[in-house]
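Form 7-S
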Amino acid sequence: MGFLDGLLGHGSDLSPAEVHEQLAGVLTEGEVVQVAFRLIRDLIVFTDRRLILVDKQGITGRKVQYMTVPYRAITCFSVETASSFDLDSELKIWVSGRPDPITKTLKRGADILGIQQAIASSIR
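Output:
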């Protein structure tokens, strides 16, 4: 995960300490947050052990879904960048055991290349 350490300060929207505080009940003992990206209210978090997708739902955001994806389960991923007419980018992650990919829509300004680099370096 040395490459992920290099992304800190480049593509990360949040500091590892800030994310660690937000995910205090989700992270296991000794688990280290490497890089985290904010997608409006949602988060994509890369730790030294897994990928955590945090989906805040509803108007208040009190209902939260936490999806854990072990790096070894990621079989494929794709990134579609925004264009002049389509302002959103799209991230798709295929996971073994799931027929459909996990899809995240990323608004303009999201660090799509940083997210792509973090996934690519994690799924060796």
